[in-house]
Amino acid sequence: MEQQEVIKKKPFEFNNTIADQTQFKVATVFEGKCTLSSYNRRDFYKISLITKGTSELLYADRGIKIDKPVLVFTNPLVPYSWEATDGAQIEEGSGFFCVFTEEFLHSGTRMESLQDSSLFKAGGDSVFFLDNSQIEYIYGIFSRMRQEFDSEYVYKYELMRSQVNLIIHEAIKMQPAIAYATPQNAASRITKLFLSLLDKQFPVDSPRFALKLKKAGDYASRLAVHVNHLNAAVQEVTGKSTTTHINEKILSEARSLLTHTDWSVAEIAFSLGFEYASYFNNFFKKHTGYTPLSLRKTL
């Protein structure tokens, strides 16, 4: 699975041009021909149904043992790891997963953002242990989605969109798992997930979209921890502050954009989360001794 999960996958090959075909995939666990990693992980939500195996799902400051059939919802901006316990592995043929963008699921409708949904948001209810009837129902939906995915039915993506919504609404009716525990080495885990989340914000690939997470508080919210807790953990483990890590990443990306693109300084400033180009100029000069334009002229 994504982000150090025990299910190791390779990328989906997105060779189609139709939007739905690039915004949704469904596969069985370990399915070779439906593999994952070339898609932009910042954009894709994920629903996993695991029916066999033992593992542990770990977030920044909480974790839960997975030792029975489970339905899990994950957000592309909330880092996690899914690790084997006592050498046990999630087995081949032990379930399904699907990945999709918010655009695919909403498809023009005015629904709440998935990031604000209790199923996907940081610290929300995202893990559901299933009884036999729930397993049968959810497994059946995933099976039908997987079957339709290979079909030539003209409206198959509309059908699969409805089936994903069925899973979401079924989960909303369920009782979420509450047996969370604090993982060992919490500072190390929080730091690791912070750095993973920071890395996922880059590279910046369009001057039209601003950086979403710009300061320590933004990252703390995604990790569902207090900002002071995050700052203390990162400082303890790395010897540098959270803000220093963020600034270093932004400066590195700024140099890259100034060097390898023809974007204007204003466009670069916007893409890196600065409201005004003057703020970006001041930030860049403070940390490098050069203005963005003067650096670009030396290249």
From TrEMBL:
Keyword flag DNA-binding: yes
Organism: Mucilaginibacter jinjuensis
InterPro entries referenced in this protein's UniProt entry, alphabetically: Homeodomain-like_sf, HTH_AraC, Tscrpt_reg_AraC-type_HTH
Coiled coil: none
Keyword Transcription belongs to the record: yes
Residues annotated as domain HTH araC/xylS-type: 218-298
Cross-referenced Pfam families: HTH_18
Keyword vocabulary terms for this entry: DNA-binding, Transcription, Transcription regulation
Annotated protein name in UniProt: Helix-turn-helix domain-containing protein
